[in-house]
């Protein structure tokens, strides 16, 4: 096979001269690249890497980290994640119960927690009292940070076990045992209104499959919004207030009410 040498690194096989399609050629088109074409290709091979190198050299070094967390203050509810290697312990009380949480930071952009709730109301829907417990793994992935604004994607797989009323059972079987598992996802946002105070607004959606002795297996979906206020008393200590609400849909035999409320006041401490 004949070949044309275009550059020291590129060898292009010469295509056959026979074609079933008509094409336009100039009078002096022999199929071989001209000297000017070879020179142009070689110029591109030199100038392209040079332009990339110049662009990297003159780029603003801070631009690469512009979307990192806007501060290293402790935060549980906003879009601001904590520093890599930090461990934060937190606890709160409200509705539907009390909780304790241990937060770990594998990186400054990703935080994961182990959270245990003891509830006296349903954590899913409604306002009926019910004894139960919840185990969950809250996670946040920081995606944007600039000025005083932070955004993070949030996910929280969870499991529930307790009285049937905690997962929606109504009537004579509400005291029997029930349980379920689900996933909550959302977007966490944080706005630093002062050096020590951060406001948060976080839309969320959750879905759970539950099972009770009276209603069998059912599904629950909830959509809502959580607002938070976090006050950093020091680099290690943070007080918080969280208020949330939403509306849900569920299997016909589950829950008398389709509304939901979340309330919590508590303290977080960085070790």
Task: List its salient traits.
271 residues; mainly beta; Porin; 11-stranded antiparallel sheet; two-stranded antiparallel sheet; 9% helix; elongated
Walk me through what this model shows.
The structure is a single chain. The chain is mostly beta strands and 271 residues long. It has one helix at residues 35-58; strands spanning 3-5, 11-13, 87-95, 97-104, 110-121, 129-136, 139-146, 149-163, 177-192, 197-212, 216-232, 237-250, 259-270. The chain contains one helix and 13 strands; from the N terminus they run ββαβββββββββββ. Strands 3, 4, 5, 6, 7, 8, 9, 10, 11, 12 and 13 form an eleven-stranded antiparallel beta sheet that branches. Strands 1-2 form a two-stranded antiparallel sheet. The termini are far apart. The protein is elongated, with a radius of gyration of 30 Å. Residues 5-66 have low confidence and may be disordered. It folds into two domains: 3-59, no CATH class; 87-270, Porin, CATH 2.40.160. 9% of the residues lie in helices and 52% in strands.
């Amino acid at each position: 096979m004949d070949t044309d040498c275009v550059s020291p690194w590129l060898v292009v096989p010469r295509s056959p001269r026979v074609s079933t399609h008509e094409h336009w050629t100039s009078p002096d088109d022999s199929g071989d690249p001209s000297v000017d074409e070879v020179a142009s290709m070689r110029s591109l091979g030199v100038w392209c890497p040079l332009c990339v190198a110049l662009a990297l050299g003159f780029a603003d070094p801070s631009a690469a980290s512009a979307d990192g967390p806007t501060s290293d203050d402790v935060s549980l509810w906003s879009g601001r994640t904590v520093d890599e290697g930090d461990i934060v312990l937190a606890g709160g009380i409200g509705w539907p119960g009390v909780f304790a949480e241990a937060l770990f930071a594998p990186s400054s952009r990703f935080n994961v927690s182990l959270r245990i709730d003891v509830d006296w109301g349903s954590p899913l829907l409604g306002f009926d009292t019910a004894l139960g417990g919840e185990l969950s793994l809250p996670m946040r992935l920081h995606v944007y940070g600039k000025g005083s604004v932070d955004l993070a994607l949030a996910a929280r797989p969870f499991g529930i076990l307790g009285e049937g009323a905690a997962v929606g059972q109504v009537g004579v079987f509400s005291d029997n045992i029930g349980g379920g598992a689900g996933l909550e996802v959302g977007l966490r946002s944080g706005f630093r209104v002062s050096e020590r105070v951060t406001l948060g607004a976080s839309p969320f959606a959750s879905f759970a499959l539950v099972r009770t002795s009276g209603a069998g297996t059912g599904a629950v979906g909830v959509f809502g919004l959580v607002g938070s206020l976090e006050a950093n008393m020091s680099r290690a200590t943070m007080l918080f207030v969280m208020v949330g609400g939403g509306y849900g849909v569920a299997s016909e035999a589950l829950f008398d009410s389709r509304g939901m409320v979340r309330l919590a006041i508590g303290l977080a401490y960085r070790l």
